[in-house]
Write the C-alpha cells for this entry.
Amino acid sequence: MTTLTTAGRPPTDHTASGAFRLLLALCGLTTLLLTFATLAAAPARAADAPAANRPSAQAAYLADRLREHPVHVTDQLPREVPRSMAPDFARLAERTGVPTYVLVLPGQSGSGEDLLGAVHDRLGRDGLFVLLDESGVREAAAFGVGAPAEAARTATVFELPYDAGPLRSFALFVDVVAQGTEKAAARADAAREKFRDGNEPESMYIGPSDRQNQSFVTGIALTALPLTILLLPPYVRRARGRFPRATRPGPAVGRSVRRRLLVPGLALATAAAITLTAPLVFDQTKRGPAPLPTSADMTARVERVAKGLAQDPVYADPESPRLLDEAQLSGLHDRIERFGRSEGGGPVYVTVVPHLPEDESAGDEELFAAAVRTKMSKADGVGEADGVYVVADPLDGYIDVFNHGLRVESSRLHFDLPDFISYGDDRASEADDHLLGERLDALMTYLDESPRTDEPATSGNPARPLSPKEEDSLPPLFATDFWPGLFVGAMAALLLLGLVAGALGITGAVLRRRRPAPLPTEALALTAPSEPTEAYLLRTARTELSAAAQAVEEADLGSETFALAWDRFEAAMFLVDGDIDIAVMRSSGAPGTDPATLLAVIVLARAARNAFGGDTNDRCCGVNPLHGPAAGRRHVRVSEEGHRRRMLSLCPRCLDSAVAAPRELRERLLTLPGPAGSRVPYDEPEGSPLRVLGDGISRLVSAARESSSAR
C-alpha cells in the first residue's frame, strides 16, 4: 500500500491520522446536531414564552366583542351595571367626537393600561379606548386620535364621589373629552387641586345604617318636640308664677282659654309638620345609582357558563386573565376523565369565573354552582346534571367544591377541604396565577381519595339572596329605628323637663331669697316695724307688687272683685311708673321712691291682692298701715300732744290695745324717714297720697291716679 505525502512532509502514523479525522467528523456532527436542535426548539421556546409575549386570550375575546359592537358590558355585574345599560353608554360615547370603544368589566379583571393596549392591537382600529368597572372609569387611552383621555379620567376621579356610579362617571368623562385638550387639562388640574385642599365630593347615596339614623332622628323629633311643647310651657308658666314679677301684666280677657287651646294645638301642629316634612327632607329611596336589571341580565352569565360546560367540563372565563395553560388544562381533563370512570365517581365541572357581590348570585359560590347545575339540567332535558361542581375564582384564587348527586361524602368536600386547595399558601398569594393549576390537580387527588357513600349525596340547597330591587331599596323612613326613636324622644322630653325643673327650682330659690314672699295677713301686725327704713319699704313694695302681679295673672277674669282689685293694682303701678322691679330700676331717693310713695304702693298692692282673694275691705290700720286690713273703727289718741282723739280704722291687734293698753298705740304709730334723719308720721308729708288714707283705700286709689297725672 503506497503512502501518500503532502508538500514534502514526512509520512504520518496511520493511527494518529485516523484519530485526527475522527475528531474532525465528531465536531462536524456535533455542530450539525446543535443546529437542528436550535431550529427544532424555537417553536417550543415560543410556546413557553411569558404571557406578555403571547397573544392574550382575554384581549382577543374582548376585541372580538368590540368588533361586534363598540360597547361591551360584562354580564358579571348585573346588580350594579346590567348589560341592558349598553345603549346608554353607546349614546354617551357618540359625544366624544372620535371613535370610542367602551369596556365594562369587573374590577381587578386585568391591568387596565396593558389590557387596553392589547385590545387595541387585536382589534386593529384606532380610537379612544375606555375601561370601566363597577365604580367608574378605571383606565382610558387614546390610540391614533387626539383625545385628552388621562385628563378626563383625572377629572372623574376628583370631581365625583365614590358612589356616583359608572354611567355618571362616563358621562363626566365624555363631557371633559369634548372640551378639548387645553380645557380638559385645566379642569383636571383644578379638580386635583380642589381635592388636595380637602374639598372631597359628598356622597350621593346613603346606606341602610344612614337610613336607620334618619329613622331614629325622626322618631326622636316626633315625640320630643310635641311633648316638650305640651309639657314645658305650662310647667314654666306655673313655676314662674311663684317668682317675683319683673314685668307689668295687663288684662287679657280670654287669655287662659286661648292658652289652653294654643299649647295642645301647637304640639299637634308640630307633630303633623314633622310627619309630613321628614319624608321630604330624607327623600332618598335607593342605595346606589344602579338601574333595576332585567331577568335576562340576571341569567346571562349562568347561561353562558352552562353552555360552555356542556361542551367542556372546564370553563375559564374569557373576560378574565387566563390562569391555566394548555398543559395544565390537558392534565386537568385527564384527571376529570379518570375520576368519572372510577367507582362512585362521576362528572366534574370546573368553572374559573369571578364571584363578586354585584353578580347574579351576590358573590355566593354555592348559589352559583346550583344555578349552573339547574340550567344544565334544563338544557339537557333528560334529568339532573349531577356531578361535583368546582368553583374557582381567578381574582382571589379561592376554590370551593359542591357535590350534587354523586356518591361522594359532601361534607368532606365542603367543610374539610385542605387550606392549600381552598385558599392557597404564601406561594399562591405571590403568584400571578395563584398556583391554580397545581391546586386543582391536588383537588382531583383529594377527590380520588374521598370515601364513597352508599347513596348519592348533595351539598344542600343554598339560600336565595335578596332581589336587586330589595337590595337596592332603602328601608321605609317610618320603620327600623323609628320606633326606638319614639321612646328615646319621649325620654328626652322628660329629661329636658327635669333639667328645666331643676334650673327653675334653683332660680326660684335664689329669687325667693332676694325677694321673699309676702307675709300672711295675720302676721303683719306682729312683724311690721313702726319705724321702717327706706330700704325696708323698697324691698316690701317690690315683694307686694310681685305678689299682686301674680294674683292678677292667676285671677278669674269673670269674678265680681276683679275690677276692684285691678283698679288698686293699677293705681300702685301708676305710683312707680309701671316698674315693678323698682329696687333694680331705681335708686334710693329717686322720684317715685320716697318713703310715703313706697308706703302707698305697699298698701295698694296688698289691698289688690286681698281683693283678688275675695276680701273687699276698703280700709287698713290707721295706726300703722303695714299692719294690714282694719277690723273696726275707734276714737283713739295716737299723739302725746294735746288730748285730741281721732277716729281711726284699726287692725285686730290695735283694736284690742285701744281698750286694754291705749298708750301702746302711740308706740305703734308708723313714722317715715324725714329730712336730716328725723322721723315724721306717715300721713303728714305735704302732697302725700297717704293723707287721704283715712277715708279708705278707694280714696287712696283716686289720689294715686291724680298724683301720677300731676307728675
